[in-house]
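> call design_seq(struct)
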């Protein structure tokens, strides 16, 4: 089974990421502002997870449809934040061409696939469902920041007793992917995510059909910076 079909679909995922609920109060309004679409715009929240950012998109008057691979996440979303939802895989979206004004892709939700072709396909699918002039907001981890943050602890198991899990991060031998192993609730998890350089992210966006790209270096819309913790790309479908 692909790691992403397992890791996000176990109850332990909600325990490991419990702090993200509180962070949604900051991230949601900020990311929705960077998406910057007028009320009434049709936005696909891909992936929507358990819907922690949904209220902040809805607060801007956007018409939101959420999509995710994890049934566990979709069920929680439906219970806590009722909305139109679809179970889907990024590689083949169940939406018609040019149906959306925006695609909202928050919290390092690109680079999960093993091959470059599949990761590009995710962006190509985003481009396909956007109308010309539509907006993709792609919120990624800043590669250089992450490299520096992991360097001090790479390969060491770190304990998070309050949160009830332990984790160990290592880079793949070629330095392109971060592998984060976690143990929680007696189960083992292993995220394996390609973390692109800025040049790689921009090249993929261009190849997928996005023209103008505005990069930000933080939730407050500050300019992109090489050492920023987040690289957030607002890309326009040509
Ligand atoms: C880090 S979470 C982000 C969720 C949400 N954007 C947020 O900020 O809370 C990544 C999500 O991607 C979903 N996912 C992973 N692989 C996927 C795939 N191939 N197709 C669709 N969704 C996928 C997971 O189920 C998980 O809910």
């Amino acid at each position: 089974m692909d790691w992403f079909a397992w890791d996000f679909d176990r109850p332990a995922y909600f325990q490991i990421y419990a702090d993200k609920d509180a962070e949604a109060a900051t991230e949601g309004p900020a990311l929705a502002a960077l998406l910057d679409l007028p009320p009434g715009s049709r936005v696909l929240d891909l992936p929507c997870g358990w819907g922690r950012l949904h209220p902040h998109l809805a607060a801007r008057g956007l018409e939101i449809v959420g999509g995710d691979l994890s049934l566990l996440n979709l069920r929680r979303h439906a219970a806590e934040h009722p909305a139109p939802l679809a179970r889907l895989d990024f590689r083949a979206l169940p939406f018609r061409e040019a149906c959306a004004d925006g695609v909202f892709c928050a919290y390092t939700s690109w680079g999960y696939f093993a091959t470059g072709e599949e990761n590009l396909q995710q962006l190509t699918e985003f481009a396909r469902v956007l109308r010309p002039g539509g907006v993709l907001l792609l919120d990624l981890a800043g590669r250089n920041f992450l490299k520096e943050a992991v360097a001090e602890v790479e390969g060491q198991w770190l304990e998070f007793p309050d949160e009830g899990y332990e984790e160990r991060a290592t880079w793949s031998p070629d330095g392109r992917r971060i592998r984060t192993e976690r143990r929680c609730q007696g189960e083992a998890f292993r995220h394996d995510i390609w973390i692109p350089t800025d040049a790689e992210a921009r090249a993929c966006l261009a190849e997928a059909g996005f023209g103008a790209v505005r990069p930000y270096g933080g939730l407050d819309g500050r300019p992109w910076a090489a050492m920023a913790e987040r690289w957030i790309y607002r890309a326009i479908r040509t």
